[in-house]
Records
---
Amino acid sequence: MDLPKDPMMLYSVVNTKLRDYYSSLEAMCEDMNLSQQELEETLHAAGFEYNKELNKFI
């Protein structure tokens, strides 16, 4: 699955996947063959940070 380029849509899709399918961002990125660093940088630029304890971007 290709992830959306729009940061707000990306935020929504990633958090949904984290909530419904993955126990961590690392597990999601590994399973989907994504660069965790690039994903975090993209969402950081839009004002979101990953919270490991909550397993979501806030």
---
Amino acid sequence: MLAKITAKNQLTLPKSATQAVGATEYLDVQVRDGQIILTPVRIQRGDAVRAKLAELGLGEADVADAVRWARTSAVAPMAAEPVKSYSATAKARKKKTPARKAASRT
């Protein structure tokens, strides 16, 4: 397959090449032995991370707790609490009283 590089260093890849590797928005570019190697990269967006956190029932407070735990474990690994306690905390936070539900809607 032949592809042309424009004066602005832009390259259009043949449709058959892009279909063979699947839909991707980004390519990793490497140069080895005078060859340019393009590798598809799939970058997870912030929305995907937020959706996964919501699926697990984790909120901002859980993330803050995890960060706090990670920072303390780097200093004193034996003093840190187990990670599984965060999922129990998330489940406890999910249960809201009627007053808390009303407050969260405003």
